[in-house]
Amino acid sequence: MIYYVGIDISKYKHDFCIISNTGEVIVENSSFENNKKGFQLFLDQLKSYNKQSVQIAFEATGHYSLNLELFLSNQDYSFMKVNPLVVHQFLKARSLRRTKTDKADSFTMANYLLSIQYKPNSCLLYNIYTLKSLCRSREQLIKERSKFEVLLTNELDKSFPELKPFFNNMISSTLLYILDKYKNPKHISLMKDYDSIRCISRGKFTYAKFAKLKELAKNSVGHHDENTDLLISTYVSIIKTFNEKLIQ
Question: Which residue from 129, 150, 235, 244 has the highest number of Cβ atoms inside 10 Å of its Cβ?
Fold first, then answer.
């Protein structure tokens, strides 16, 4: 005996039904909440059946089903995620009275399973999902960091316009270190810790560059005040935080 479990996924609760391969309705229009207690209640409904005889299906609805998918995998249950468009075509074909706006319910999902070959999702898909999620998060962090790099550049254009061209218009770790410690051209013109800067740059920042930067700062046409120094300090701190998160 095969038992077909159709689940209608939603944000706060999931509806489900169970039918047998003979078409007998075992569980009709029941539901469980999208939390640990609800998942356990759903599991209790399945425990009386052999796991190999249970086939589960639900629509691919994005992240709303993710926790349930992980729960089912941890309990060694297979499941099949179905393209919503395919299910709705099946729904329309079942009855001429149904319209395009009819919602596929759990009973529809169970009957859809009954009519097709069961092809459960692979566990490898979770590794792909995790990788995609990390890539999207990293891309978002880079976009947010770019916003503050623009704000920092705007302040430097006013307070020390010669600085970024000196660093090839790149906001490097060396530049961030200098700005974090000195903030404005007046202080940069007086800096003395060449060894620390050389270490931060991994030896790329030579003493000749160090001396040239101090000379640029001494003769800068930029204007700075307390407000500019505060903004530069704030933006540098935020950018460094983004850098730390992106490296992790």
Answer: 235
Q: Which value, to the nearest 10 degrees, does the dihedral of the CA atoms of residues 157, 162, 168, 173 take?
A: -80
- Beta strands (DSSP E) in the chain are 3-8, 13-20, 25-33, 54-59, 80-82
Query: Rounded mean pLDDT of 85-97?
Result: 74
SS3 per-residue string spanning 15-68: EEEEEECCCCEEEEEEEEECCHHHHHHHHHHHCCCCHHHEEEEEECCHHHHHHH
* Helix pair angle (124-159, 226-247), 10° resolution: 160
Count Cβ atoms within 10 A of the Cβ of residue 52 and give its class: 0-12 exposed, 13-18 middle, 19 or more buried.
exposed
Tokens of 241: 């935080």
CA distance 109 to 85: 12
pLDDT value at residue 237: 97
Query: Average pLDDT for residues 95-120, to the nearest whole number?
Result: 73
Instruction: Answer whether 161's CB lies under 8 Å from 219's CB.
Output: no
Beta bridge partners of 17: 6
Q: What is this structure's pTM?
A: 0.61
Residue 24 phi/psi, 5-degree rounding, is -70, 135
Share of the chain above pLDDT 70, in %: 92
Q: Indicate the residue among 54, 87, 121 that finishes a domain.
A: 121
Q: Give the pLDDT score at 125.
A: 63
127 within some domain: no
Q: How many residues comprise the chain?
A: 248
